Every structure is written in C-alpha cells, then in structure tokens.
UniProtKB/TrEMBL annotation:
<dbReference type="InterPro" id="IPR011257">
    <property type="entry name" value="DNA_glycosylase"/>
</dbReference>
<dbReference type="InterPro" id="IPR051912">
    <property type="entry name" value="Alkylbase_DNA_Glycosylase/TA"/>
</dbReference>
<protein>
    <submittedName>
        <fullName>DNA-3-methyladenine glycosylase 2 family protein</fullName>
    </submittedName>
</protein>
<keyword id="KW-0234">DNA repair</keyword>
<keyword id="KW-0227">DNA damage</keyword>
Length: 305
C-alpha cells in the first residue's frame, strides 16, 4: 500500500545535491533518478524494507515522498531529516576564503541528509577502505544484487534493498572473493553486523558520542566513521581524515599547494562544525582539482589471488 507525505521545507532545497550525497556511484542499486526527475531510494528500516519516490515542485517548493513496503511509515516519519531539516548551513562561515564563498553561494540549496540508518551507511564505507572507487562500487553493486531483494512497490526494476545484518553475516568467503572484497574488509563487515542493533542505537545520539562508539568496532577508524556519520547522522563536521585525495585537494584549493591531513585540518579549523561541508564544497568546485602527476591506482583483481 502506498503512503504519501508532502512537506514544504522552510529553506531553499536542491533535491539532487542533497540526496545525491547518499548515492554510491551511478551503479548504486539502492538509488535511481528516473527520467521524469524523481529520485528513488530503497532502505531497510527497523520496520522493514521500503522504497521511496521523491519529487519536488518548482512552483510551490513542496517535496512529496511516496513510499511502499513495511518500512514506509518509518521512512516518511523521518522525511524532513532525509532532506536536511536538522542541518544549519546558515552558520557556515563562508567568508574565510573566496573559493568557498562562491561555492557556498552557488549551492545554497545543498543540505546534509540524515538517514538515521547506520549499518546501511557503514557497510559501503567499509567496502571503500583503501581501494579504488571503481572496486568498492562494483563490490557493493554485486553484493546487493546477489543478496538484497527487489524494492517494494512500483520501483524501477533495478532498485534493490540492501541485505539485513543476518544476511550479510551468511555471505560465504567465495562470494566476498568473487565480488573483489579482501579478507580484511569482509572481516570488518562481519564485526559490524554482529553488533548491528547497538550500531543502530547510535542514530539519535549526539554526533561526538555516536562517532566514538562506531570506532569501537574492530576495523572501523576515523575515515570510515566520518564517511558513515556524514550520511547516517547528517554530520556536517565529519571530515574524512585519511582520504588519499581529499587532503591534497583541500589544501591545494585553499593555498595552491597540496598538503597532508594535518595541513588540511589546520586550514579547515575556521570552519569547525562545518568542516565536511567545506571539504565537500571544495570537491564540487571545478577549479579546485589538483594537477595530476602520477598514474591512477589500478584496481586489483582478487578473483585471481
């Protein structure tokens, strides 16, 4: 049965920029943009799976969510959170640098989405640990295709719901291998799904406390925690320390010289509370790309190891 909720945000909202932060590449099986511009998302909520179709009216500013499945009511109850209602970009001190001032002005409608679903944000982040983006996104797509389920309702045929914790725990070694996931990452996912209920209970906690608890899981460090918190908690300050490229891109954009994580954090200090937002705006700015001096890392083929 379809459930519907219409909500008018009390702020300018760029739907694609906001929800696009949740997409794990163009092949993400849990996210689709339809030809009519509607955004489709699947989710595994505490009440069960659901699919959500989101559209925005250019004339009224209203955003409508249509949801199907056992988790539909849970998802629509948190509809404003998904659209960044808890975010406060007005407090972003964009005046510190002209690049960020211009980037923020051009993307005022971008909010930090809060899904409230920790495991769903954590597992793709673990898959992205220390591998190329291509490798990680392929692994996520394959595993959700093999072990997920079709999204309920009239969702696009290719939209699937991420597996639940018990299903992740049952994935055999050879399918991790076939998806290109090494033992270290699969072991970390196993550690996370064993404490999945405790992880989900961090969703309503203050961001610093939730971040601290996530890092108690073996294999989950600062980078993975930040990547998760950005999505599950809408944390605008969770900067991805440890990212191979981000520190160079941020420091190059703000000083003209690529630097390390320490230098990046020094430069982002004036944006405390919004450091992830600042880094994200920099990544979106065409003029902030670091000139390439070395070849890209080649994806590894774990099926031949």
């Amino acid at each position: 049965m379809e459930r519907t909720r219409t909500w008018r945000p009390p702020y300018d909202l760029d739907l694609r920029l906001t929800l696009g932060q949740l997409q794990r590449g163009h092949s993400d099986p849990t996210y689709r943009v339809a030809p009519d511009g509607a955004v489709w998302r699947s989710a595994r909520t505490p009440a069960g799976p659901c699919s959500l179709r989101i559209t925005a009216s250019r004339t009224t500013g209203e955003v409508t969510g249509q949801a199907w499945g056992p988790g539909a009511e849970w998802q629509l109850d948190r509809f404003p959170d998904l659209l960044g209602a808890d975010d406060n970009p007005a407090a972003f001190p964009s005046h510190h640098h002209p690049l960020l001032h211009d980037a923020f002005r051009l993307r005022r409608g971008m909010r930090m989405p809060r899904t409230g679903l920790v495991l769903a944000a954590l597992i793709p982040s673990i898959l992205e640990q220390k591998v190329t983006t291509i490798e990680a996104r392929k692994a996520f797509r394959l595993l959700v295709h093999w072990y997920g389920e079709p999204a309920p309702g009239p969702a696009p045929a290719e939209l699937r719901v991420i597996p639940d914790a018990a299903t992740w725990a049952r994935i055999p070694t050879w399918d991790w291998h076939r998806a290109g996931v090494d033992h270290k990452r699969s072991r970390t996912i196993m550690a996370a799904v064993r404490v999945a209920p405790a992880l989900e209970r961090t969703a309503p906690l203050p961001n610093p406390e939730a971040s601290r608890l996530l890092k108690l899981v073996p294999g989950i460090g600062v980078w993975t925690t930040a990547e998760t918190m950005q999505r599950s908690h809408g944390d605008a300050d969770a900067v991805s320390v440890g990212d191979l490229h981000l520190c160079k891109q941020v420091t190059y954009a703000l000083t003209g010289t690529p630097g390390d994580d320490a230098r990046m954090l020094e430069l982002l200090a004036p944006y405390q509370g919004h450091r992830h937002r600042a880094a994200l705006l920099i990544r979106m700015s065409p003029g902030a790309k670091v000139p390439r001096k070395a070849p890209r890392f080649a994806p590894r083929n774990y099926t031949r190891i």
